[in-house]
Design brief:
By secondary structure, this protein is an alpha+beta fold. It is 34% helix and 24% strand.
């Protein structure tokens, strides 16, 4: 059956060419969006005619009627409009050619606007052009494209069939624009740093490894932009941000994709408490951009709780009273696997298992142990902690922030500690980066820094359950 349909469409393609019509022209200038055409005639009464002509273009989504008069639904990114095809306007040859086109074909139309008696804005077709002959039938628009594998692997079909999917990715673009605009208006400079690096860093994660043939050396896809951006703070840029892709060679889940989008920003003379306010400001702007009206309190000041208190509240374990690995493992007992886990890994396990699921409304989790935070400045009041927070919504971490460590000697000691954790089997430990320490030795001012996950934020503000719904082409097994 499919082969027969494809053959029929091929025959129509050949027929167009035989009639001297280019089924794939180079351009079609002067097109208006369907939404703008609709806006221009909002006050038109039922049955009212105009003499206003418009040029629109899009994909044929439906067709009704034959003979002397038929109706076609045309869709573009902005919406849908009804076309009226009349034999007495187009003539026999052009009329039949238009009605002979297939669903999914792309056409351009010049037409005169009127309101049908049923109150449907319509363009009476005065002329049309084939812009691209579709050689495959489109997905069933009425039922949508439900197969998840097809939706993710052939996103073009998903966007064609499901208006809701299209709305999600338009919302994602608005979120990104709003965040950029908010930072730009506050004097931040957008920059670009390397994606292919000789030494990964800035996060606790496994990298993707590749080989640079010209240099005869292994390289890595970056796991974060942090260390380069802070070197720019050292250089005097003072407020910088980068929005782009990071890569972490880890598992797939509803919250994880190995290739993901983050924005990181750094500002001199600020600390992590300043950055809680900045995060609230940025997320509020993103929510406003998509007119978020859900139950999450993203427009209000967020809750703030320390990591120590949160773990104690949920588990009864005071991690700062169990500073040794074996003592913490004993306190955990059989609630979690502890064999082969380092002290910071056990703290992180407690956080992930017992605390994170409870953080549904926007919350800042403050003051992380130094062992979990190789780039955060030590807490100014509490020994063993750093000035770091993670931001959570719907039990999902969406941001990570520090008062940045700017003491080069302390940073060197942190790198050495990470090397010990690597020796104990922690594959995500941060490698030693001498070039970064050298940059700090030139002096970095007090600095606050934040990383926000764009994919997760989009999930939350659009009400999606999995990260694959907000990434156009997510990672999938072949």
């Amino acid at each position: 059956m499919e082969d027969e349909l494809l053959a029929q469409r091929r025959e129509k393609l050949d027929r167009l060419r035989a009639d001297g019509i280019d089924p794939f022209p180079h351009a079609y200038p002067g097109v208006e969006t369907i939404a703008s055409v609709r806006a221009a005639h909002e006050g038109l009464a039922d049955g009212e005619e105009t003499e206003v002509s418009h040029r629109v273009a899009g994909r044929i989504a439906a067709r009704r009627g034959q003979g002397k008069m038929a109706f076609i639904d045309l869709v573009d990114r902005s919406g849908r409009i009804q076309l009226q095809a009349r034999l007495d306007v187009l003539g026999e040859e052009v009329h039949q050619r238009l009605l002979g086109l297939d669903l999914g074909d792309l056409i351009g139309v010049d037409g005169t606007a009127f309101m049908s008696r049923r109150g449907e804005l319509t363009l009476r077709v005065d002329g049309f052009a084939v812009l691209a002959k579709s050689l495959r039938p489109p997905p069933d628009k009425h039922h949508g494209l439900a197969d998840v594998e097809t939706r993710y692997r052939q996103r073009e079909l998903d966007l064609m069939a499901n208006d809701e999917s299209r709305d999600v990715f338009i919302a994602r673009a608005k979120i990104i624009s709003a965040i950029r605009r908010t930072l730009d208006d506050d004097g931040f400079v957008e920059v670009e740093t390397p994606t292919l690096v000789s030494l990964y860093g800035g996060a606790l994660a496994k990298p993707f490894t590749t080989h640079f043939n010209a240099l005869h050396q292994d390289m890595y896809l970056r796991i974060a932009t942090e260390l380069y951006l802070k070197r720019l703070i050292v250089g005097g840029l003072e407020r910088v941000y980068e929005l782009g892709k990071n890569f972490r060679n880890e598992g797939l889940s509803p919250r994880h994709n190995p290739e993901f989008t983050m924005i990181e920003w750094y500002e001199a003379y600020a600390d992590y408490l300043d950055e809680t306010v900045r995060v609230e400001q940025v997320i509020r702007a993103a929510a406003e951009a998509v007119d978020y009206q859900g139950e999450l309190k993203v427009y209000e000041p967020w809750a703030r709780i320390t990591l120590r208190d949160a773990v104690l509240e949920q588990t009864g374990i005071d991690v700062l009273e169990h500073r040794e690995r074996d003592a913490l493992a004993a306190a955990i007992g059989d609630r979690l696997p502890t064999d082969g886990r380092t002290w910071p890994q056990l703290v992180d396990d407690l956080l992930g298992e017992f605390v994170e699921p409870t953080l549904q409304q926007p919350t800042f989790l403050l003051d992380y142990p130094v062992e979990l935070s190789p780039f955060a400045k030590r807490h100014r009041e509490i020994e063993g902690l750093t000035e770091r927070f993670e931001a959570y919504i719907c039990g999902i971490e969406i941001a990570n922030a520090f008062t940045e460590l700017n003491d080069p000697d302390d940073q060197r000691a942190r790198f050495e500690a990470q090397a010990r954790y690597a020796g104990e089997g922690d594959e995500e430990a941060q490698p030693y980066d001498e070039s970064y320490v050298r940059a700090l030795e030139h002096g970095m001012p007090p600095t606050g820094g934040v990383g926000v996950g764009i994919d997760r934020l989009t999930m939350i503000l659009t009400g999606r359950d999995t990260i694959r719904e907000v990434i156009l082409f997510p990672a999938l097994r072949d």
